[in-house]
Write a structure and sequence with these properties.
By secondary structure, the chain is of the alpha/beta class. It folds into 3 domains: 3-63, Transferase, Pyrimidine Nucleoside Phosphorylase, Chain A, domain 3; 79-324, Pyrimidine Nucleoside Phosphorylase, Chain A, domain 2, CATH 3.40.1030.10; 330-419, Aldehyde Oxidoreductase, domain 3 (Alpha-Beta Complex). The protein is 47% helix and 15% strand. The protein has helices at 3-11, 18-29, 35-48, 52-63, 91-101, 120-124, 136-146, 159-171, 177-190, 211-227, 249-260, 266-282, 289-301, 304-315, 321-324, 326-329, 351-361, 405-415; strands at residues 79-83, 106-110, 148-152, 195-202, 231-238, 246-247, 334-339, 344-349, 377-380, 387-388, 393-399, 416-419, 429-433. The chain has a 4-stranded mixed beta sheet, sandwiched between helices. Strands 6-9-11-7 form a 4-stranded antiparallel beta sheet, with helices on both faces. Helix 10 links the parallel strand 4 and strand 5. It is globular. Pfam families: Glycos_trans_3N, Glycos_transf_3, PYNP_C.
């Protein structure tokens, strides 16, 4: 077996066998094949596509290319949640404590962000001193102690994916559904969860721009999970406007805290409850989604989720005072109101443009070495369907550099579109795929 034969075979539209895909992934992992042949093979996949069996075999080979985390020492069904990413997506920070307060172990491995804001690990650093770099033994012990731990991904988790993604990024082969699905699922499966809940987003602020594309991706990832003997469910959700009102690392953490206090935005709260309800059913805490929703809501009402967040932050050496007094532990040098130039209903908000505004302020990374300013960001004052008067504030910019505000303001102004007619309400959760 050699790489050139595989390139010819896929170029001609033939189906690759499991052994052939494993040969390719091993060659990538061991650096025994040149980048130009890997790139050529990726391009054949891009144009000829893979069926769901090939995609599952690619995922399994990538999963086995590095460490497989064993969570067998953690009691109960371990359920992981993954979001395909969006603007203002802070659900993990609220969802984890809610699920843990229901007695389901949350052993979450997350990454840093490259884009408009940081990833979950970056956001958690709003809690000064928090440690997310830990041994697997410490990770497991923390989950057994309080049902919740969040750690950075190990460097040897699905290493084939890291190399393949880097090449996809520079060869125009990122947006192929099989390559996307195998990239996401290989890391999730290697992380050791028994069951997985996926939040697959679509819209202007998501990688998948249409609900149909998101549904196709969600269905493929569910089929991969099932083939590899995992319980799995996917929610297809709207990301045509930012989730919640806060965009920026500490601002998003504060909004997640407010969800646990019972005063968070309706959309963030509802999404957390729906994702958590699916988790509780997969974890066999109940066989009824209705009961699961009530259990999730009760963790907010009785304060157990907020208390679980405090336990989690404290156990990972973070400062918990932000949870009780956000004003004392968060500030920026400048605040600037973005003013509406016309009256009307907010007809749409381009989430991608809001993300670019946050990035312009320093809330995210343009390269992996960029330094994030955790405190900067944007608070939206108006969302889709709300009425705005001319000269009313539609958003507040929080910045530590006065010179960055004008670019952020331009992106926000371009993001908002007004109309004299109120837009139809968009259902946030479009579909559930099992």
């Amino acid at each position: 077996m050699n790489m050139l034969d595989l390139i010819y075979k896929k170029r001609n539209g033939e189906i690759l066998q499991k052994e052939e895909i494993a040969f390719f992934v091993n060659a990538v992992t061991n650096n025994s094949v040149p980048d130009y042949q890997i790139a050529a093979f990726l391009m054949t996949i891009f144009f000829q596509k893979m069926n769901k069996h090939e995609t599952a075999n690619l995922t399994e080979a990538m999963m086995n290319s590095g460490d497989i985390v064993s969570l067998t020492e953690i009691d109960g069904v371990k359920v992981d949640k993954h979001s395909t990413g969006g603007v203002g997506d802070k659900t993990t920070i609220a969802l984890g404590p809610m699920v843990a307060a229901c007695g389901v172990p949350v052993a979450k491995m997350s990454g840093r962000g490259l884009g408009h804001t940081g990833g979950t690990i970056d956001k958690l650093e709003a809690f000064t001193g928090i440690k997310t770099d830990m041994s697997i033994d410490d990770f497991i012990q923390r989950v057994n102690d309080i049902q919740l731990a969040v750690a950075g991904q190990t460097s040897n988790l699905a290493p084939a994916d890291k190399k393949l993604y880097a090449l996809r990024d520079v060869t125009g082969t990122v947006d192929n559904i099989s390559l996307i699905a195998s990239s996401v699922m290989s890391k999730k499966l290697a992380s050791g969860a028994d069951a997985i809940v996926l939040d697959v987003k679509y819209g202007s602020g998501a990688f998948m721009k249409t609900s149909a594309d998101a549904e196709e991706l969600a269905a493929l990832m569910v089929s991969i999970g099932e083939k590899l003997n995992r319980k799995i469910v996917a929610l297809v959700t709207d990301m045509d406007q930012p989730l919640g009102y806060a965009i920026g690392n500490t601002l998003e953490v504060i909004e997640a805290i407010n969800v646990l206090k019972g005063k968070g935005p309706e959309d963030v709260t509802r999404l957390c409850i729906e994702l958590g309800s699916q988790i509780l059913v997969l974890a066999e805490k109940t066989d009824s989604l209705s009961n699961a929703r009530n259990m999730m809501k009760e963790t907010i009402n009785n304060g157990s989720a907020l208390n679980k967040l405090k336990q989690f932050v404290q156990l990972q050496n973070g400062d918990t005072r932000l949870i009780d007094s956000e004003e004392s532990f968060w500030s920026t040098k400048f605040q600037y109101n973005v003013i509406a130039k016309e009256s009307g209903f907010v007809y749409s908000i381009n989430a991608e443009y809001i993300g670019k505004a946050a990035l312009a302020l320093g809330a995210g990374r343009t390269t992996k070495d960029s330094v994030i300013d955790l405190n900067v960001g944007i608070i939206l004052n108006k969302k889709r369907g709300e009425y705005v008067n001319a000269n009313e504030s539609i958003a507040i910019i929080y910045s530590n550099d006065n010179g960055l505000i004008s670019e952020a303001e331009k992106w926000i102004e371009q993001a908002y579109h007004f109309n004299q007619d109120k837009p139809e309400e968009v259902e946030m959760i479009q579909k559930i795929i099992k």
